[in-house]
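User: Can you help me understand a structure? I only have the sequence.
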Amino acid sequence: MARAGLLLILVAALAGCDDGVDKDSPFAPGIAAKGATIDPMLVGHRLMQAGEYELAIKSFSRAALDQGMTGEVLVGIGSAYLALGRLGQAEDLLRRSIEADERSPEAWNNLGVVLMETGETAEAGQMFRRAYALDNGESDSIRDNLRLALEKTENPVYDDVQEQEFKVVRRGSSDFLIRKIP
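Assistant: Let's start by predicting it. Here is the structure, written out as tokens:
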């Protein structure tokens, strides 16, 4: 009888340890109610380093739920959109991040990159100057971006499209040569 009572107490004590998790289920367990959370901004930055930009956007969005749309959150989401090639969305978010926090060299630099990609080299140069000043010239990548923007602004390259006719000439059984028609 004492054994049965001890067994019953042991079973009752261990009943809360399982939390209803089905060990044979192929699905991941749910959120641990008592578990410690990791800063979603940190997770977002790590996901960016890993090249997981869509997941980074989700993580930065979770951070926005806790912190609000701070300049740092906007820079994170805007940078992820930039990495995905969504330049319009990236530009909007990066401009908003600068309005929220004008002291972020990362925001100014990334906005400059967006502007360079869209062909706005003069404005991009201004963004890189501001980023370089805020960073005290410590970042090589910002310096290189500024140098490139200044070079493109001072020496614009105009590609005159010239229509030329070419003829494909077959030489042998599988050798082709492209010749310009005079």
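Now, to help you interpret it: Residues 40 and 65 are 10 Å apart (CA to CA). Helices lie at 2-14, 40-49, 53-67, 71-84, 87-100, 105-117, 121-134, 140-154. Let me know which part you'd like to focus on.
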